[in-house]
């Protein structure tokens, strides 16, 4: 992917990342050359003390200007770095009268190849910079050649090493310039794919929430109507249908519903549920539809609002299943809180069923109970057999 296909924000990030990488590489190459030169000049017998002190000061100035040129890029810092580098070569070469030993030759090689040669890494963007790069290289080589006197077997290897250093820096800069756009393009495409996947996941999650909402509300009312409201007081059926109608009206206005229980809704974020009032509301609602609920155990459950809401909604759906399918008019609910796990057990003495025969795609239990509790970090277990009643255990950790 070329930079032209990136968005403006991605192109800005691409340019900034590339520049940072080029300058960091230049700084690393340059400081490596400076440190190598200091080590070489510090070897015993490399040069006399005044020359050593002068060269050490120049190398420190070269390191400082390289750091400034790569942290606060400006052509003047680069020119100053180059001039100090050539001055350092002269300061090493001139006192030796053009005759180099191993230490001084290695120091000049380090300064010429990396101390100033590292600048080639960032001089590869435009034709003007490439011309500056060529001038800098030939200026470095010309300085070394002009300072050499007589026959010195170390000059040719020195020139080869300097040429290799400038060549490596140049090729590395060109490689970064050519490969970095592809890398950033791939990173940008991965980021866009991640955003698409995230939006798809959010859409699927919202679809499941909507399905649970319809199942717990409107479809529950339609089921009552399909069975002619047998066993349900007309007032209760009318009240629930009115609630469903109000819900659908507000949905068309674009609100995001969060049901508290079947037939009762809140269209804004709720604070922590008042458990006692919620359980009493469940008891009254199911009593009006012909199902009596016997509560056992604790009425205080230490769950945060979102987990408590999921627990109560799953509990409500379990009671709805008892009312619809068990053939009984009494359900037992046992609540417990052992400090780590909140547990709810819904039991009926009805017809029961074989859990293995229930299709996994059934929305009622799979989504409104199992998925809802699972999303809250809990688990659901079902114990049932034909003609032996049903027990559902809901567990949610705190």
Order of helices and strands: HHHHHHHHEEHEHEEHEE
How large is the radius of gyration? 40 Å
- First and last CA, distance: 48 Å
Q: Could you name the ranges where pLDDT drops below 50 across 5 or more consecutive residues?
A: 259-273
Structural class: alpha+beta
- The total strand number stands at 7
Instruction: State which percent range the strand residues make up.
Output: 5-15%
Helix percent reads 55-70%
Count of the separate structural domains: 3
Q: Which of globular, elongated, flat, extended, rod-shaped describes the shape?
A: rod-shaped
Average pLDDT rating: 78
DSSP summary: helix tally: 11
Strand line-up in the sheet with most strands: 3-4-5-7-6
Largest sheet: 5 strands, mixed
Structure explained in plain terms:
The protein has 398 residues and is of the alpha+beta class. 63% of the residues lie in helices and 11% in strands. The chain folds into 3 domains: 3-192, no CATH class; 217-269, no CATH class; 271-398, Heat Shock Protein 90 (2-Layer Sandwich), CATH 3.30.565. It has 11 helices and 7 strands. The strands form 2 sheets. A 5-stranded mixed sheet has the order 3-4-5-7-6, covered by helices on one side. A two-stranded antiparallel ribbon has the order 1-2. Strand 3 (292-297), helix 10 (305-326) and strand 4 form a beta-alpha-beta unit.
